[in-house]
Design a protein that fits this description.
about 400 residues; mainly alpha; Growth Hormone, Chain: A; cell membrane; xenobiotic transmembrane transporter activity; transmembrane; Efflux_drug-R_Bcr/CmlA
Length: about 400
Amino acid sequence: MSHSMAADVRPHAHFAHAPLLALVIGYLMLQPLSTDLYLASLPGLASGFGVPASTVQLTLSLFVAGFGGAQLVIGPLSDRFGRRPVVIAGLVLYVFASALCALSPSIRMLIAARFLQALGCCAAVIMARAIVRDAWAPAHGARVVARASSWLSLAPLIGPIVGSYLQVNAGWRAAFVALGMVSALALAVTVMWLPETNLHRDRRATEISGLMANYRLVLGSRDFWAHALPGALSYGAIFSFISGSSVVLIKVLQVPTEIFGYCFSFGVSGYMGGTLLCRRLLPRIGMRRAFKLGSGLALATGALFLALAAAGVAHWALVLAAMFLTMGAHGINFPVAQSGAVTPFPQQAGTAAGVMGALYMAIAFLVGTVVGATHNGTLYPLALISCTLGMLIFLAVRLIPGTEPAA
């Protein structure tokens, strides 16, 4: 590693003793693992519980809804009480909820347990975002997130493959047993090694007046919207594939369940490529130009996907190519959006991360619902959604200009 790259990931001196980057990566990984590890089980859950696919989709959609809503509470709590107690409580809840998922006797119980699991997962992810703002210089935030995201991409690469084999060999419950074991390990490491990074706690953060003041500050910031809105739309674009690819590939295009994980992982490898490209782009062209490049790729991919689907092309390779490029665009967009949205708020980093995350999940919930409702046995609805989101990302980046963070 070069000296400059090492400097990009070195936290402030008083946190140098702690493995913060590894912890941040672990917390962020929990979200894709929570969705991707059981994607191959979605068709099987429908037949196993004797319910329609739209009901099974609620295990994903309500996870997203719970994750999104909780961020509005968890962010301010961490601004008031600190990052460490909030993430420990969240991981304890996640371990408990994973056990409930694995033991669920009905689809209703599974949906409820998934909602609880989302609350615990939310605490880990929001704390990861806030810790980056706490522990690294603002100018390095995007590069730290890009570096973490390169490792983070291993979760959606490996998760679907492992999940496919778990589904084929042990059934859907095995995925939630695995999630419980991963979260228990994360909890143990956190208790042993995570220091408190919030050195500027806001005692008014959880008071109504303080909470409203912080929300007004975040929501009134042009820089926040310039990064959070395109980032949320970009997440919506990849979520269309997360929620729709298993049904399209397995049910429509007849891809075997045990092969689905490899197909999904190939698509997700685009995200890793995007983050690696982002790390090279940021020191050369800056955040705004990198954002424009990523949003342009998202639009071009969605438009091409729609054109080919409308022309009657129905092949698994088209879905994988569109997913690969959409994920690649998000790999460029996400580090810029993540860092740029929280950088202006050193004392309200948890609140800003929470609002941004709630926006991400609101759009993901909407996208997941639309994907499930519009599925008609063809590729066209997924392609239309992908193109629409690509256009919105492209416009948002150009119509809401932001500023580069100062060192």
